Backbone:
DNA sequence: TTATGACCAAAAATATATTTACGGTCATAT
DNA sequence: ATATGACCGTAAATATATTTTTGGTCATAA
């Protein structure tokens, strides 16, 4: 049966509270009691909605993935050049940069993810979340949005390197020496377009179609995962 | 007075032994006694050549920087396209990839650098070693080896991001999923050339001249640093 | 002179005991 | 039916004592 609106609302409140605290203090240093307090309910109530602290965290991650993907697609749709490689990547990077949780997942942030990373059963611990897969580049290539002569595996990996650099570079250098994110993302997107887009400018419409396809696939998988995660009452 | 050849030779032996052990076990888990044994001399003899374990490590790092820089220049000289951005960067990446110590310094590897990193007085702890500086891009731009319309600060940073990705990506993903280094470096250099080199192909000779200039500057600074590090007997 | 390795103080690692904090439950209240 | 928070066992953090390792020295040997 579908979930009543007020329950949904309360779960959202809990997840909001959890998001704030987890991002700020990390998984280990955020207690369930803390989350309850932040959400303005009792500790017991949390367990009426989530099986465990870990399940709560995973529900949060799934929600974040959904909004990450949705945000990405929305940006791509709104951007005339959203179907070109540069346009697509610009929007991925913006979405990634705007989501501390996705960024943490992508860079396997030990501080934020804490014990969740150490748990071998953690479903979302896998290292591929938020990353560019070469199958996508392949499709974009077939759609004429990426130069034919390039190796999709290499291209995808380079894009992942840049995404990693965007979120992790502050670990090896003084943040004051890092250019403003906005300008950096523009620079990267510009680089991508110059180097990877076909000379004719690429077929942005076809590129968007591919992205939509990928998006609905991903959305389905996420929905299934959410469904599966809810078998507990 | 200049150092006798046999002393120089022995110091090289010590540094060789130290390099092997430090790279393998890291700074913390390599003892001075270990180094002495590996070098085939007594522990006391080490202290005839180096003030402390840390001074030894720094001497090793300086030697490595010198050979790193020399290797880089040699590669650039040998490469007809060595003066273009792509050519230059290809050779930097090869040099970086070939030197575990430089890579560790660049990525601030806590395992390898260990306590050396924690010491606030460590001269070479600074985060800029091995990295691309925007002044260099500036010069290359003036020499006509890089497109005029690009922002040197952004370009330099993107290059650093890619170098970081090259040496650090294995921390967030399964090494089996990382493309072969050789192919990856080629892909990156190719990307650089496509995106950053002027349409006319760039002035490789002028680029090389700039690199030589930078090299001799750096060499001088390193020599001074080595000199300064030797005021102890 | 130059090199050695036993030696030392100090730090790091290990072991043990003790306290605190936390995830999760459930009798009770609303 | 839903929500609460006192409660419980355990795991993590802290404190303490004990052992081992290590960077560095120096009297002695070559």
Residues:
């Amino acid at each position: 049966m579908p979930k009543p609106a007020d329950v949904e609302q309360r779960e959202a409140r809990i997840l909001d509270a959890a998001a704030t605290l987890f991002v700020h203090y990390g998984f280990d240093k955020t207690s369930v009691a803390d989350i309850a307090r932040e959400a303005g309910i009792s500790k017991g109530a949390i367990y009426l909605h989530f099986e465990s602290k870990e399940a709560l965290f995973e529900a949060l991650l799934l929600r974040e993935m959904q909004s990450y993907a949705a945000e990405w697609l929305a940006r791509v749709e709104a951007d005339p050049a959203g179907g070109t490689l540069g346009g697509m990547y610009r929007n991925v990077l913006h979405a990634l940069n705007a989501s501390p949780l996705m960024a943490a997942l992508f860079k396997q942030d030990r501080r934020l993810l804490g014990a969740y990373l150490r748990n071998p059963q953690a479903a979302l611990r896998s290292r591929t979340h938020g990353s560019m897969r070469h199958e996508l580049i392949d499709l974009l290539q077939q759609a004429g949005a990426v130069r034919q002569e390039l190796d999709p595996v290499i291209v995808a990996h380079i894009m992942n390197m840049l995404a990693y650099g965007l979120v992790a570079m502050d670990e090896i250098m003084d943040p004051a020496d890092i250019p403003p994110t906005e300008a950096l993302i523009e620079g990267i997107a510009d680089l991508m377009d110059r180097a990877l887009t076909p000379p004719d400018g690429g077929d942005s419409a076809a590129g968007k179609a591919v992205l939509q396809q990928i998006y609905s696939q991903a959305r389905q998988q996420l929905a299934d995962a959410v469904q599966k995660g809810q078998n507990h009452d």
In short: The mean pLDDT of chain B is 93. Residues 31-33, 43-44, 47, 52-53 of chain B lie near DNA strand D (CB under 10 Å from a C1'). Residues 53-78 of chain B form the longest helix (26 residues). The two ends of chain B are 11 Å apart (CA to CA).
